[in-house]
Every structure is written in structure tokens, then in C-alpha cells.
Design brief:
The chain is an alpha+beta fold and 75 residues long. The chain folds into two domains: 30 residues; 45 residues. Helix content is 63%, strand content 13%. It is built from two helices and two strands; from the N terminus they run H-E-E-H. A two-stranded antiparallel ribbon has the order 1-2.
Length: 75
């Protein structure tokens, strides 16, 4: 029981570190928010960006990474 809680805490810590690194580095990725399929609207100084394609790509990548991580942890 304690070993399982320890693994969960380690996983949460690694996830927190990875999310923190991602948040720091996200401005340096040039294509985020500018993929074909992302919608940008500008009207009289007001701008609205709907990153649809970026959201789909990030969802696929994160799903694959999480599946790999969970398969490694379950072995």
C-alpha cells in the first residue's frame, strides 16, 4: 500500500516538473497557435485566437506520452 502511494507521489512530482518546464518553454515553440486550422479573429483592436489544430496536436502527443508512461509503470 505504501509503495503504491510512493509511486503515485513520484508520478505526480514528475508530471508537475514536466508541466512547469512546458509552461516556461511554450513561448519558444514557433508553431503553437499558428498551425493551419487555428482560427484568429481581429476586430477593431480586439483579437481572439482559437487554436483548434494546436489543441488536437497537443492532445494526440500528450495521449501518446501518457500511454507510454503508464505502460512503463505497470510493468
Amino acid at each position: 500500500m505504501l509503495a503504491e502511494i510512493g509511486k503515485l507521489l513520484i508520478l505526480l512530482g514528475v508530471a508537475a516538473v514536466l508541466i512547469g518546464i512546458l509552461l516556461v518553454m511554450i513561448d519558444k515553440v514557433p508553431f503553437l497557435g499558428r498551425l493551419p486550422g487555428d482560427i484568429g479573429i481581429q476586430i477593431r483592436g480586439l483579437s481572439c485566437i482559437l487554436p483548434l489544430a494546436t489543441s488536437i496536436v497537443l492532445s494526440i502527443v500528450l495521449t501518446l506520452l501518457l500511454n507510454l508512461l503508464l505502460r512503463v509503470l505497470n510493468k
